[in-house]
Amino acid sequence: MSDVDGPLLAVELCAHGWPPSVCRELCDQLDEHDEPWGLAALPDTPVGPGLALQVHTAAATAGLCTDTDLLTLAESAARLRECFSAVTMRMVGVFAARHPPGSSAAPPDAEPRAISPVSRWLPDQIGFVFSVSREEALSMIARARRFTDVLPATLAAWEAGRIDERRADQIANATTVLSDDLAREVEAAVLPGAADATRRQLYDRIRRAIARGDPDGAQRRHAVAKADRRMSISRGEEGMGSLWISGTAEQTEASWRCVDRMARSLGTQDTRTLDQRRVDIAHHLLQGTMSVTNLGAVESAVASVLAAAHGAPATPESTDRTDTDTDANPAVTSVAVSSDVVAAAVREVLATKLDPNTVIGRKPLIQVVVGLDTLLGSERPAELAGHGPIPAVTARALAAGGSLARIVTDPVTGQCLDYGRSTYAPPANLDDHVRARDGHCRGALCTRDIRELDHHIPFGGGHNGHTSAENLHGFCTGTHKLKDAPGWHAISLPDGGLTWISPCGWSRTTYPKDYTPFTDPLPEPPAPPMDTPNETPTDVDQAADPNLPPPF
Fold first, then answer.
1. What residues contact residue 189 under an 8 Å CB cut-off, 6+ apart?
2. What are phi and psi of 87, to 5 degrees?
3. How many degrees, rounded to 5, is the angle at CA 109 between CA 107 and CA 111?
4. CB contact at 8 A, 162 and 153
5. Is there a contact between 366 and 257 (Cβ–Cβ < 8 Å)?
6. Which residue, 66, 76, 105, 310, has fewest beta-carbon neighbours within 10 Å?
7. Can you give the residue ranges of every domain in the chain?
8. Which ranges of 381-503 does DSSP label H, i.e. alpha helix?
9. DSSP designation for 551
10. Where are the stretches annotated Disordered (predicted)?
11. The pTM is what?
C-alpha cells in the first residue's frame, strides 16, 4: 500500500488477511505457518508475547481495519496494558519482600559494609525509579505487598488481563477492614464474576460478601460510622454554598427518593433542570417554606374566578349565584364560564405547589430485601435497594416500622419469581415485582436506578405484546432510548437474560438480580473453645459461690 502524494491505496491481501510485507514479518514469528489467523481471534488470545506482536503489527495498518477490528485491537491493547501494570506491581512486591520492614541491609550494588535500616533507602530507591515522592513510594510498596502477600489470586487475574487495575484496587481496598484469611475468602467469592461486572456491581458484591463473612464486624463498623453522622456547611464562590449531610443508608435513601419524586412531579411546565428542582425543594423542606396544595385553596381560587366573571365580589357564596340573582340585579352582567376552563387555570397556577404526602406516594419509600431467618434473629445481612448490604439489626428495625411483601426466589438462580400477584400500564404489584426482580437498570453495563418499565415486544399496534413480567424490563431513561437507537438490538432469553448487541457486533448479557446471598445458608459459626480442666469449678469454688453449676 502507499499513501505518498495521494490517498491510501488498497493492496491485495494474503491468505491470512494481511498485506504481504506484514504477513512475512509475522510468519517468521509463528510456529505453524499454515495456520490462518486474524484479528477475530484476538479476544480469545491469552496475554503474552504472541498477543503483543499481533497488536503491535496490526496497529501499524489500522487503515485497513474495519470498525470492529479497531475496537478488537483497542480491547487487546488494554489487556496488555493491564498485564504490564500488574507485572510492575508484582516486581515491586517481590523487591520489597526481599527487604522486609525492620531489617537492615546494604542497598543493592552498594558496599556490603554500608548496612543501614531498609526503611532508610528502600522507598527512596522506588521513588527514584518511578519518579514519585517518598510518600507515594511508601504507598506503592504497601499496595504491592497487599497484592503479593494477601491477594495473590487478584494479582494473577490482573496480570492475565481478566480484570483491570480499578477492579483489582476495589477488592484490595475494600478488604482492608478484614483479617487476611477473611480477605482471601471474600476474594474467592467475588473474583470469578469480577471481569463481567461493572464497578458498581463489583462494589456491591464485595460489600455483600464482607457483610456475609463478617456480620459482627459489619455491625460494629456500622455503629461507629453511624455515631459519626453530621451536617456541615461550605461557603463557596460567586455567592454560592454547599450543605453536606451524612446519615444511615436508610435515612439518606428515603430522603433522596422523597426529594427526587417531588422534583419529577413538577412536569415539563417547570423550566428548571431536574437538579435545580431537587435543590430548591430540599431547601424549602429544610426551611419549612414548602407550599402545599390543598382542596380549600383550589375552591377559593375557583370562587374568585367565577365571582370576577359575574362582576361580583370574590366570595365563595358567589359560586352559588343563579339566574334569578341576575334578574334581581340588572347591573350584574351574566358571563358563561366553563368550570373546566376555571379548573385548568387553577391547576396551572398551582402546578408548582407540591403536596409532599401526595407526591411521595405510598409507603414504604425504600425497598429492603430481608430473609425470614434475619427477621427471626439471624445475623444474615439484608439488602437496601439502591444502596447495598445493611446490618441485620437495622433490617429488623426497618421491617418493624414498614410494610412487608413476600418475594419468592428461585433456589437455583436466585432470581425473583413472584412478588405476591391487560393493560399497557402495569398495576402496582406487577410494577413492584419487575423492579424487585431486576434490581437496577437492565442495560448492558448500567447500574442506575430503574426509572421506566418497557415492553420488550411492543404493546398494541399488531405486535401482540402483553403487559406481563416476562415481557417487561426495567430501564433508566438513557438505556430506554438506546434500546430503540439504530443498529442496537436487545434479545430476550428464556432464562431471563437480556442480550445487547452493539452496531459493531459486540454483545453483553444482563440477568435479573441474584438473591442467592439471602437464601444460601450462612457459614457455620466457629466452635467455642473447649474448657480446660483447670477452668472447671472446684468444690471449694462451689462452696464459695453456691450459684455455680456443678461440673458435668
1. 205, 209, 213
2. -60, -40
3. 75
4. no
5. yes
6. 66
7. 20-65, 77-195, 295-349, 405-518
8. 392-401, 428-438, 477-483
9. P
10. 515-552
11. 0.62
CB-CB contact of 433 with 418 (8 Å): yes
Cell numbers given for 290: 414548602
436 near 367, Cβ under 8 Å? Answer: yes
Q: Residue 321 and residue 304: Cα distance in Å, rounded?
A: 13
- Cα separations (Å) of 171 from 152, 231, 309? 12, 30, 71
Tens-binned pLDDT, residue by residue, of the chain (552 aa): 334 344 444 556 655 555 555 555 555 554 443 333 467 777 778 888 778 888 888 888 888 888 888 888 898 899 999 999 999 999 999 999 988 888 887 777 777 777 878 877 888 889 989 999 989 999 999 999 999 999 999 999 999 888 999 999 999 999 999 999 999 999 999 999 888 888 888 888 898 888 888 888 888 888 888 899 999 999 888 888 999 999 988 888 888 878 888 887 777 777 888 889 899 889 988 887 776 554 555 566 667 766 766 665 544 444 444 444 444 444 444 556 666 767 666 666 555 555 555 555 555 456 677 777 777 777 777 777 767 777 887 777 777 766 556 566 666 667 666 555 455 667 777 888 888 888 889 988 888 888 888 888 887 766 677 888 888 899 998 898 888 888 888 898 888 899 998 888 888 898 888 877 666 666 665 555 555 555 444 444 444 444 544 443
Per the CB < 8 A criterion, the answer to whether 505 and 68 are in contact is yes
Specify whether the CB–CB gap between 337 and 346 falls below 8 A.
no
475: number of Cβ within 10 Å: 24
Residues, the chain, total? 552
HSE-up of residue 513 (Cα within 13 Å, Cβ side): 31
Q: What gap in Å lies between CA 392 and CA 219, rounded to an integer?
A: 8
